[in-house]
Amino acid sequence: xGIGNLLLILTLATGLTVLPLRARSVLGQDEPREIPSRxxxxxxxxxxxxxxxxxxxxxxxxxxxxxxxxxxLEDHRQPLVHAEFHxxxxxxxxxxxxxxxxxxxxxxxxxxxxxxxxxxxxxxxLDRLGASVEAGASFGAVATVFTASxxxxxxxxxxxxxVEILLEPSFPAAELKRLKDLTKVQLRQQRARARFLAxxxxxxxVYGNHPAAVASATVEAIDALSPEMLANWHRxxxxxxxxxxxxxxxxxxxxxxxxxxxxxxxxRAPAPGRVLPPHPRPAGARRVYLVDRPDSVxxxxxxxxxxxxxxxPDYVPVLVMNQVLGGGVAGRLFLSLREEKxxxxxxxSSFTAVEYPGAWSATTDVRTEVTEGALKEILxxxxxxxDAQVGDAELADAKRAAIASFALALEQPSRVLGFALLxxxxxxxxxxxxxxxxxxxx
Length: 442
Hints:
By secondary structure, the chain is α+β, with helices and mostly antiparallel strands. The protein has helices spanning 18-21, 23-27, 102-109, 119-129, 155-167, 173-190, 194-207, 219-224, 227-237, 253-263, 315-326, 332-340, 371-387, 392-409, 413-425, 432-441; strands spanning 7-12, 60-63, 69-74, 80-87, 132-136, 144-151, 243-249, 287-292, 298-306, 347-353, 357-367. A 6-stranded mixed sheet has the order 2-3-7-4-6-5, with helices on both faces. It is globular, with a radius of gyration of 24 Å.
């Protein structure tokens, strides 16, 4: 991803003419330069140069008679159980172009009624059992994710209820009308937010015709939804043959599997045919997109392009690079735009790496009058990390931060389960996470 190919998304106040008139100076190929930091670093925190050595527990893995893959990660430190269904063909990425929001609406409606229970009864039963159930289908994702959590001691009561909610939804018309009314209010509210408008335009710019360009439902699509549409999506897309059920917590794998064979025996559906769209292509030339937002008092900037997918051998180097550039308050973007220039409260960068190449972006909100200066500094920092070698101390700090974040995640069983799922989904080596700290350190 070259500096010359970045896409720049700006949401601007009405009447701001200085940027278009002086675009050449903002977008020109300025020379990389060092920006001295006035941030005083005490360097008194204890630092170890030892590489974190871990051996993550490996989940028990099996396939049920109906084709459902099951991962079970035992963790008896707390009397809790966490379960996740990843329905890998039911994500928003596979929605019809005319119905953005179909996958999300189907997921949200699961809790609103089954063949045996009303929405109120479901809420009361979950509350009485001390359990929680959530479902969602994010835009750009291949999967709908259904989660259920509760105490180990009454697992045999709340998990069958979760299965009923997942597999036997009734999609009552009255509840769907309520959801549609609420969603349309939320759609109007989000269009009043500069961050959303910038993200929406950024997605369209970087992803083009790829389904990941869609960042939100539309009022027209929400109005068109019917209980029959949701039921058809559920019937055609919620298939055990293209799903993974993962557990983490106080469970015994052999006993649990015997119960699952019984509880899920009736769930049978053919695989829907999971064909990903062609990968999005990086922009080949620099472009500027302006989103005019009357009466704004600041500019929201988003700068970026298509980067890598999760299987890329460059994933770890990109992770560390991003940590140096904009991964936190020690990142160059933060130090430059906030600490040195005082343009903003914060400036960060991030990237998405999934089944397809996702976007890398740098984002910030700045006062309108410093839009040009802020944009120049972002481009300078991107150019600097491309053209100039990162210093040893700065690189070491970034690597330690990335490894520390990974180490903290190991304290949460659900996060460890998430690592196992990532390894499964992207066919990473069996010992990938055992060697992850060493890969970052290298």
